[in-house]
Amino acid sequence: MSELAELRQRLARIEDERAIERLIASYGPLVDSGSVEATAALWSQEGTYDVEDWQMRGRADVAAMVGSDAHQGLIGRGCLHFHGPAVVTVDGDDAVAVCESVLVVRHESRNVVARTGANHFRLRRIADRWQITARVTRTLDGDAGARELLTTGIEGR
Amino acid sequence: MSELAELRQRLARIEDERAIERLIASYGPLVDSGSVEATAALWSQEGTYDVEDWQMRGRADVAAMVGSDAHQGLIGRGCLHFHGPAVVTVDGDDAVAVCESVLVVRHESRNVVARTGANHFRLRRIADRWQITARVTRTLDGDAGARELLTTGIEGR
Amino acid sequence: MSELAELRQRLARIEDERAIERLIASYGPLVDSGSVEATAALWSQEGTYDVEDWQMRGRADVAAMVGSDAHQGLIGRGCLHFHGPAVVTVDGDDAVAVCESVLVVRHESRNVVARTGANHFRLRRIADRWQITARVTRTLDGDAGARELLTTGIEGR
């Protein structure tokens, strides 16, 4: 490979990783502001979001979650889906990312950490844009499944 | 554009975004350690900081906030201005960034989430250094203004 | 320096900083999933970890901490070592990084912010991989030492 081609490849890798980091860092602000369409657009057409007792498939399902009474109620009281820095592993047009999160909800003028989260993302480059094809979020309550999301995510699996 | 010039441009864009990410990630450590001058230096000469009931204009105002009895009292008890990863949009010498945050304050040997924050930054490259020209921080308590900071920030407005 | 050599140098700097950011962002997921070996491997052979009343030296000590009854008890109840974005300063094969953190622990079905943290890292490139040679973590409870970790970390000292 020429020196220039090698630089181009290294740069492209950083751009890919950063695009995914940005996508994940956008989730909290979008979902906490109740941005229905923009949140849904983070997922691919058939992308899934499995969060505890809520199973979504496709953008319409994600949009419905953001627009739901349950979520809009959280926003009305004040909520923060606070996500830490993602660790991203890119392999061609596929990627895996992982991060931790807390959900802070306002309750009677106090802020309560309602939930902690282990977040595992599968992403795919579709139509030149990274999109979530599968996200799984689990509470860190000692459950082995939640811990497994973290280890596989760090390993890029 | 030559191939080399294009690579240079892409690299410069990443450097700009990273410089701003670093600036924002520095805010918490600086303000929690009570670094008066270094915190103020994140702002431009006439930069503003509008946080709830506190309106600051210029570095002297930011320095006064960090040095104030109110803020030094927080530091003395123990506080953490914990900011998440920023989403940055650069347009030439101007930029917009957004991130979420929590303020954790120690209170009678417990740590209380005293406030959640939506943070919207306008920045400008001045004398070859990115500086905050306007920061607005609002509590996420259901208020439409706070939610608007998040959506405009993600859109780079 | 040729134009190409200069681009290469700037790119390498970003790669170094990002490798360290990734290493630090991996700590929480690894320690919260109880990954004994992978957590220990973030440190150098003789690397130290000084966290409040726990002094570790070498990977075996870090591994022992992760595997300890105290830490496994935290994981069993549910814990989140939530770290914010790191500010990294690289100087050749040495680096300094700083970030803030909170430890959230599940306690009787509530999530408690058990500790806030100022985290100062010294790292070294050894065998072509960044490794922690010294980490110091202190609670932000008004203590001058904790605040000093933040200021020196931001200054890259």
Protein topology:
The structure is a homotrimer of 157-residue chains.
Chain A: H1 3-32, H2 36-40, E1 43-51, E2 54-57, H3 59-67, H4 69-77, E3 79-83, E4 87-91, E5 94-107, E6 110-126, E7 129-138, H5 144-154
Parallel strand pairs in A: 1-7
Antiparallel strand pairs in A: 1-2, 3-5, 4-5, 5-6, 6-7
Features:
homotrimer; 157 residues; alpha+beta; Nuclear Transport Factor 2, Chain: A; 5 helices; 41% helix; 41% strand; globular
Characterise the protein shown here.
Three copies of one chain form a homotrimer. The first copy, chain A, has 157 residues and is α+β, with helices and mostly antiparallel strands. Chain A contains five helices and seven strands, in the order H-H-E-E-H-H-E-E-E-E-E-H. The radius of gyration of chain A is 17 Å and the shape is globular. The model of chain A has no long low-confidence stretch (mean pLDDT 97).
Instruction: Average the pLDDT over all residues of chain A and give the rounded result.
Output: 97
Strand residue percentage of chain A: 35-45%
Overall number of strands of chain A? 7
- Over all CA atoms, what is the radius of gyration of chain A? 17 Å
Q: Give me the number of helical elements of chain A.
A: 5
Query: What's the multimeric state?
Result: homotrimer
CATH architecture of chain A: Roll
Coarse morphology of chain A: globular
